[in-house]
Amino acid sequence: MEETLQEWNETSHSNDSDYVPMIDLCFPVEASSSTENKPAGNTRRILIIAGSDSSGGAGLEADQKVVAAHGCYAMTATTALTAQNTQGVFDIHHTPPEFVARQINLCIDDIGVDVVKIGMLASAATVTAVGQALRERKEQFALVLDPVMVSTSGAQLLPPDAVSILRETLLPMATILTPNIPEAKLLLGKKEEPNPQTYEQVVQLAADLQKLGSRYVLVKGGHFRTDVAARGQTKHRLIDVLHDGHQPLLIEKEFLKSRNTHGTGCSLASAIASNLALGHGVPEAVHRACRYVEAGIRFSIDRGHGSGPINHFHSLK
C-alpha cells in the first residue's frame, strides 16, 4: 500500500494545525559510492518514453545515465530526435506515433516493466498513441509523468490539442506528475496568469493540479525563488511542493548558481522513477531524487559554451 505524506512525516509532524511539513535540503551534499538498495544485475526495469538529446545532457540520454547510476535497467521508446547542443535546440524530427507504440509494446512484451517514465511527447498523435499503448497493458507499473511542455525560454513545446489529450488520458494514469510552474499553469488553463509570488500560491497550484487525477503532484520551484535570513545573511532558496491531495510537503533547497542545469527536469523525474523501482514510496523517492540532482549540479563539469549538463555519475569514483 502506498504511504501517504502524513504517514511519511509522522515522526516529525507537529500537533500545530497550521504546520506544513518541510524537507530542508540546504546543506552540503557529498558524493557517495554507496550502493545501498541497489539490487545486483540491474533487475529493476524502467521504460523511458521521451525524445533524444544529441548533446547527451537531457532527454533519453540523461534518463539512461540516471537509471544506470541507480543500478536499474533502462529501456527506451524514442518519441523524437533532436539536433541540439548546450546552446539550444536547432531541429526536431518526430518519430511516427505508431512506431513509438511498437517500441513500447515490444519492450514490455519481452522484458517487462516496473516503472514507466514519460518525458517529451511533442505531438497530439504521439500523446494519443502512448496513452492507448499503456492503457492496453495488463502489467502493474508506476508511472512518472514529466510533462515537457514549456521551454526554459517560455516557448510552448506541446500544441494545445496535445495538452488537452495529455490532461485527459495520461494524468489519471500517473503515479506522480512533475511539472515546473509554467507547465502546471498550462495544464490548469492558467497560462496567462502571473507566476505565484508566495509558497502558499505554489501549494494551491499543486493542490489544484492534483485534482486532475494523478496520485501525487510535484511542482518544481525553479521558477519560484524565496529569500530567507540565515546567520545574518539573506540566502536564495528554491521550494518544490509535493501534494497528495491531502497535505503538501515543502522541499526547500539552496539555489545553486551554476550554468550546468541542462536536463535537470529529465534527471529528477528519472531519479524518482529509479527510486520507485527500488521499492521506495513516493515521498522518499522524491526526497532522494532531489538530493541526487542537487549533488549532480554541485559536482558538474563545464561542457560546451551554453547550459551544460549535471554530473549524473557523481557518486561513482
Descriptive report:
With 317 residues, the protein is an alpha/beta fold. 32% of the residues lie in helices and 22% in strands. The chain has 9 helices and 11 strands. Strands 1, 2, 3, 4, 5, 6, 7, 8, 9, 10 and 11 form an 11-stranded mixed beta sheet that branches. Strand 6, helix 5 (160-169) and strand 7 form a beta-alpha-beta unit. Helix 4 packs parallel to helix 5 and helix 8 crosses helix 9 (282-298).
Q: How many β-strands, per DSSP?
A: 11
Characterize the main sheet: 11 strands, mixed
Helix percent band = 25-40%
Low-confidence region ranges: 11-19, 26-41, 228-234
Brief summary of the model shown:
The protein has 317 residues and is α/β, with parallel strands linked by helices.
Write the layout of secondary structure elements.
Elements: H1 5-9, E1 22-24, E2 45-53, H2 59-69, E3 73-85, E4 88-94, H3 97-111, E5 115-118, H4 124-135, E6 142-145, H5 160-169, E7 176-177, H6 181-187, H7 199-210, E8 216-219, E9 225-230, E10 233-243, E11 248-254, H8 264-277, H9 282-298
Parallel strand pairs: 1-11, 2-3, 2-5, 5-6, 6-7, 7-8
Antiparallel strand pairs: 3-4, 8-10, 9-10, 10-11
